[in-house]
Amino acid sequence: MPTINVLICDDSALMRRSLTQIVESDPIMKVIGSARDGQDAINKARELRPDVITMDINMPVIDGITALQVIVDEGIAPVIMVSSLTQEGAVATFESISLGAFDYVSKPGGTVSVRMEHSAHEIIAKIKAAARPGTMKRLGRKSSLTTTPTKPATSLKRESTIKSSVNKEAQSSPLSTKLRGSSEFGFKAVALGISTGGPKTLFDVLPFLPSTLNAAIFVVQHMPGKFITTFAERIDRNCQMPCVEVEAGMEVEPGKIYLGTGGYHLNLYKKLSNKIVIRTPKTPTHQFMPSVDIMMSSVLDVFGKDTIGVLMTGMGDDGADSMVKIAKAGGRTVAESEESAIVFGMPQEAIKRGGAEIIKPSWDIADAIIKLVGK
Fold first, then answer.
1. Active site residue 118
2. 160 vs 244: CA distance, rounded Å
3. Considering the entire predicted model, what is its pTM?
4. Are 322 and 293 in contact (CB under 8 A)?
5. Were 41 and a residue from 9, 148, 324, 370 both cysteine, which residue would form a disulfide, CB within 3.0 to 4.6 Å?
6. DSSP secondary-structure letter at 81?
7. Burial of 164: CB neighbours in 10 Å, binned 0-12, 13-18, 19+
């Protein structure tokens, strides 16, 4: 494998040194330069043409978000944002991702962290994922949160027709009795798992699900717990369905998005009254908290064949085994295609293991979900 050349941009000499040590601990990666402010980052990116750039958000002269915009507009290299674990840091991070950043890593200790070694594995893995061929092309698609939708016009028109049909049906009689495909609970469940590249890609899907959809949407996105609240609010503001960060004891209803909270699993429990409530256990211990596999398995245990599994962009294989379980139980499964996946790891594993009935690019997944819920 060829050497991956990395440019590190941070106004802290300590951070630049720490990140350099982490990057060069991997034999196929090399730091070819460093920048101490946003303007320096742009100049070095143009001069050195690195394979991947790490970018601090808070820098002098020109901030990291502005530097990111220039680098993305010029198509120089994928950018991984380095952000602080604060609410302000979360807002800036999601803005960066909507503008075309590949992904982010967080500073465990705040604005200047001396504990970046705790994130070493994540940093190395994300740099390698960002350096894969075709990444810049996939990142070049505008976010659904911008004025230009990511979907082709024909796809938008088709979904508009579907939504109109669902809305008319819902208006003519009560949702639970009129919409087809009712389970024993009167609605279906969509279990959606996503990781690297997810904060951007989810907006190719969730905003296009109508509020009248006769399903509850359960989402696990791998990210630090302190970012989840801000992300749930962002989803809620930009989607037809309301979105909530899950809490233990919360009752499940159709037409709502439930986002797994950081540091806890997202589980379901059916009460004797036939109502479904959320549980947020800290066990079993898993690499990811919440875990896609554990969430999907729990949803399947409650909803059975009325489960629709959706696995999208992300590194590794979290969720792949549960997609197979859903398919074998008579549920339906959708995996994101390589065409749109920023990282094809998780959906690719589901496809390889036979757990993907339908394979679609991100901009067609809402369409697929709407059709499956209606069947």
1. no
2. 25
3. 0.85
4. yes
5. 9
6. E
7. exposed
Among residues 11, 306, 317, 318, which one is catalytic? 318
Q: Which residues contact 95 (CB under 8 A, 6 or more apart)?
A: 65
Residue 255 CB partners (closer than 8 Å, separation 6+): 175, 211, 212, 213, 214, 215, 216, 241, 242
Q: Is 195 a catalytic residue?
A: yes
CA angle 272, 273, 274 (to 5 degrees): 85
The single residue of 195, 291, 322, 337 carrying the catalytic annotation is 195
Token code pair at residue 145: 């949160």
Would residue 306 show up in a list of annotated catalytic residues for this protein?
A: no
Compute CA distances 95 → 39, 64, 88, 92, 143, whole Å.
Answer: 19, 11, 11, 5, 10
Are the C-beta atoms of residues 336 and 314 closer than 8 Å to each other? no
Reading the chain (375 residues) residue by residue, the pLDDT tens digits are 689 999 999 999 999 999 999 999 999 999 999 999 999 999 999 999 999 999 999 999 999 999 999 999 999 999 999 887 667 788 999 999 989 999 999 886 655 555 677 789 999 999 999 999 889 888 876 555 543 333 443 334 334 433 443 343 333 333 333 333 346 789 999 999 999 999 999 999 999 999 999 999 999 999 888 889 999 999 999 999 999 999 999 999 999 999 999 999 999 999 999 999 999 999 998 889 999 999 999 999 999 999 999 999 999 999 999 999 999 999 999 999 999 999 999 999 999 999 999 999 999 999 999 999 996
Pairing outcome for strands 267-270 and 276-279: antiparallel
Q: Given the structure tokens 């960002």, which residue do they identify?
A: 130
Domains annotated for the chain, with CATH where assigned, are: 4-139 (3.40.50.2300), 153-373 (3.40.50.180)
Neighbours of 191 (CB within 10 A): 30
